[in-house]
Specification:
The structure holds 2 protein chains of 2 kinds. By secondary structure, chain A is of the alpha/beta class. Chain A is built from 13 helices and 9 strands. A 5-stranded parallel beta sheet of chain A has the order 7-6-5-8-9. In chain A, strands 2-1-3-4 form a 4-stranded parallel beta sheet, with helices on both faces. Chain B is globular, with a radius of gyration of 21 Å. In chain B, the strands form 5 sheets. In chain B, strands 1, 2, 3, 4, 5, 17, 18 and 19 form an 8-stranded mixed beta sheet that branches. Chain B is α/β, with parallel strands linked by helices. In chain B, α4 crosses α7, α7 packs parallel to α8 and α8 runs parallel beside α10. The chains are: A alpha/beta, B alpha/beta. Chains A and B meet through α4 and α5 of A and α6 of B. Chain A: It holds the Pfam family OTCace. Chain A: Catalyzes the condensation of carbamoyl phosphate and aspartate to form carbamoyl aspartate and inorganic phosphate, the committed step in the de novo pyrimidine nucleotide biosynthesis pathway. Chain A: Keywords: Pyrimidine biosynthesis, Transferase.
């Protein structure tokens, strides 16, 4: 599937991507991270290009991150937030594609509640499509920014043990991270109750499943927590937020089981006191704010690279 | 009406398993017997049809077809459905009742039968709604619907969710010796699901339906059929576990029957890869082991019929993100061609395959169609089992184009179809 997921220079997912395909994104992003900090980034890499952020689902932080990335490279960036009420109408998505073609947009960033929606759009638009999160399927730029953050602190991904905790089953962040981390040689543990970490998750690659935090976190290099949606309680997947925190929350006692200095990560927005204790989120081990910073750098790298591959073809 | 003599054909009579070069006579639109090739007694003025060695069998009987009319004519009309049917050699089809309105009024049953005759191409055997509006609640007027010509009762694509209600429906149906047809899927396990549970759906991030949703409902309903003594049929069975339960129930002498559809023995879940919505079906395409179990159940007789499970949708119903796209695929045109893969793969002998798509489903529905008996309507299908062709969505007869077999190469193609002795497909069809 890797070939088709990247054909025509889209970034629809990380499934099937090799180390060789992932590394150039990370290297370029590392470079952009340095340049951004020194405020010397060349602001013309995307001059004259149009980037459209099309969000069918609310997400202020991811949209802002892509917007900033595009603007730092000199692109014209337009945000379109599509009312959720019309998402289920169907024509919307393909009609939108026709509209975008007419606007001659170069790069299209798509967030959608349905798995596969960016892939469907990619079939119909002439722009390069970047998946900014589709349903439970993938969120490739999040996994890339997580990888970059880890590399900056630990130097490599190869051989690390990464525990992904919480609502793994519904998480596109988890799926993209599993594909990326296993490709880069990390050992991935999925930690949570069986209702949130179903057995079928084991089929996603060489991952191990843990239903207790103690075995899941022990000697981990990285502890990644995921947001628990309130609706999981209503759907009967977990009884309450406080029970979830009691058994699956990342607190300092559990974090002490991981390697000394293990990184604490969260894709945001956090529910403090549900999946993560406040003191852990704010501790010296937390790299959560840095993840946000690396997000901009990674998105600059993705937009730049796709744009250049477009020009080359 | 011109009399016909089919010559130089490999004649298959699925009722007695006859499979040999023969002549077949048609008089006044009715079958007038078979004899050896080159036999005397050519009726005067009869038209001679040279089959050139192709197979001649009864017109196929498809026991599970959703039409679209009334209510969803933008997907398919009765006329366009009939054109698709005869292109696949189907001359009799049982129409599911979950149209708009649902077929829960005697007048609607008569209307469907009449509209079928009007096409001149096919006979429509209407299913009656099992509950009013196919809503799974109030019992429909089963007796009156039956008097009007309903052949069996079902809510079509919905299972009766409530256990007690299902028990009462079966008990009542038993009283009038009516066949109940159930969509075998636990509704609460299936709700919101788009693909069979497993590695592929997990990777694609699609909401899942466990294969066990089928076995759970089948187990419940077999037990209810046993309690009530009713005749119960499961449509489009797709899992090994569900089939094992049906096999056991049959061994215990219960009046349980079932059918399956070509996607479930010729495709597996991999067909939905890359979010191909034409392969989104209900029940969903399953794992390879389930496909193999369906083949085994066809071979050992657990499965009583093969139906197309034809479900027409418009392109706009399918060009959507996978989870939002409508479930179902067309199947009339490809029923025989895909079915023949079972013969090519050695799963079934040809005469048995034809029986599963003609006289056997007809018998379940109390219809006389699907035989070569003398005096029966001359509904016939002539096909060449060796012609290769490629299924192409967009090029299919009829209005709906949503075939899950798009791009598949099939071996075996219908050359001609006759309804009441009139050629309705192929050659000089009107």
């Amino acid at each position: 599937m890797a070939e088709t997921l990247t054909r025509r220079h889209h970034l629809l997912g990380l499934e099937g991507m090799s180390t060789e395909e992932i590394t150039p994104y990370l290297d370029l992003a590392a470079n952009y991270a340095l340049l951004s900090r020194s405020r010397t980034a060349p602001r013309d890499a995307l001059r004259g290009r149009t980037v459209i952020n099309m969000f069918f689902e609310d997400s202020t932080r991811t949209r802002t991150s892509f917007e900033l990335a595009g603007k730092r490279l000199g692109a014209d960036v337009i945000n379109m937030t599509v009312a959720t009420s019309s998402v289920n109408k169907g024509e919307t998505l393909l009609d939108t594609a026709a509209t975008l073609n007419a606007m001659r947009c170069d790069l299209l960033v798509v967030r959608h509640a349905a798995s596969g929606a960016p892939a469907l759009l990619a079939q119909k638009v002439e722009a390069s499509v970047v998946n900014a999160g589709d349903g439970m399927h993938e969120h490739p730029t999040q996994a890339l920014l997580d990888a970059l953050t880890i590399k900056r602190h630990l130097g490599t991904l190869n051989g690390l043990t990464v525990a992904i905790c919480g609502d793994v089953g519904h998480s596109r962040v988890a799926r993209s991270n599993i594909h990326l981390l296993t490709a880069m040689g990390s050992k991935v543990r999925l930690v949570g109750p069986p209702t949130l970490v179903p057995a079928a998750m084991a089929s996603l690659g060489s991952v191990s499943i843990h239903h207790d935090m103690e075995s899941g976190l022990r000697d981990a290099d990285v502890v990644m927590t995921l947001r628990l949606q309130r609706e999981r309680m209503g759907a009967g997947l977990v009884p309450s937020a406080r029970e979830f925190f009691r058994f699956y929350g990342v607190d300092s006692r559990r974090l002490a089981l991981a390697k000394p200095g293990a990184l604490v990560m969260h894709p945001g927005p956090m529910n403090r006191g549900v999946e993560i204790a406040s003191d852990v989120a704010d501790s010296a081990q937390s790299v959560i704010q840095e993840q946000v910073e690396m997000g901009v750098a990674v998105r600059m790298a993705v937009l730049d690279r796709l744009s250049r591959m477009r020009t080359a073809s | 009406m011109t009399d016909l003599v089919f010559e130089n054909v490999r004649l298959i009579d699925p009722v007695d398993g006859h499979d040999a070069p023969s002549r077949l006579l048609v008089r006044e639109g009715r079958l007038a017997g078979r004899d050896k090739p080159g036999a005397e007694g050519m009726p005067e003025g009869a038209q001679r049809i040279d089959g050139k060695g192709a197979v001649l069998c009864p017109g196929l009987v498809d026991m599970r077809v959703a039409i679209g009319e009334p209510g969803f004519e933008y997907r398919e009309t009765i006329a366009s459905c009939a054109r698709a049917a005869v292109s696949g050699g189907v001359t009799t089809l049982a129409a599911l009742p979950n149209s708009k309105p649902a077929i829960d009024e005697p007048a609607l049953v008569r209307l469907l039968r009449g509209r079928g005759e009007e096409t001149g191409l096919v006979s429509i055997l209407p299913y009656g709604a099992l509950t009013k509006g196919c809503k799974g609640e109030e019992m429909a007027e089963l007796g009156m619907l039956r008097e009007a010509g309903a052949v069996a009762f079902t809510d079509g694509i919905h299972a009766i969710a409530d256990t007690k209600r299902m028990r009462l429906l079966l008990a009542y149906a038993r009283g009038i010796d009516a066949l109940v047809v159930q969509h075998p899927e636990d509704p609460s396990l299936a709700k919101g699901g788009a693909a069979t549970a497993g590695a592929l759906a997990t990777r694609m991030g699609l909401p899942q339906i466990p294969a066990a949703a089928e076995a759970i409902l089948i187990a419940r309903d077999i037990r209810l059929a046993e309690m009530t003594g009713a005749r119960l049929h499961f449509g489009h069975v797709s899992t090994g576990e569900g089939l094992a339960l049906i096999r056991q129930a049959k061994a215990r002498g219960l009046a349980i029957t079932c059918d399956t559809a070509p996607p479930y023995f010729a495709l597996n879940e991999e067909a939905i890869g890359e979010f191909r919505t034409y392969a989104k079906l209900s029940p969903p395409l399953r794992a390879e082991k389930d496909r193999l179990a369906v083949c085994a159940a066809l071979a050992d007789g657990t499965i009583d019929a093969i139906a197309s499970d034809h479900a027409p949708w418009d392109a706009d119903d399918k060009r959507l993100p996978f989870a939002q796209a409508s479930a179902g695929g067309t199947g009339l045109t490809t029923l025989l061609g895909v079915g023949l893969s079972l013969v090519q793969d050695g799963v079934l002998p040809l005469a048995r395959l034809i029986a599963l798509m003609s006289c056997d489903p007809a018998r379940l529905l109390g219809s006389e169609a699907g035989t070569l008996n003398e005096g029966a309507s001359a509904d016939l299908c002539l096909f060449d089992p060796d012609i290769d062709w490629v299924v192409e969505a967009g090029e299919q007869p009829g209005r709906a184009q949503n075939t899950p077999f798009d791009g598949r190469r099939l071996k075996g193609r219908v050359l001609g179809t006759w309804k009441n002795g009139q050629r309705v497909f192929g050659g000089e069809a009107a």
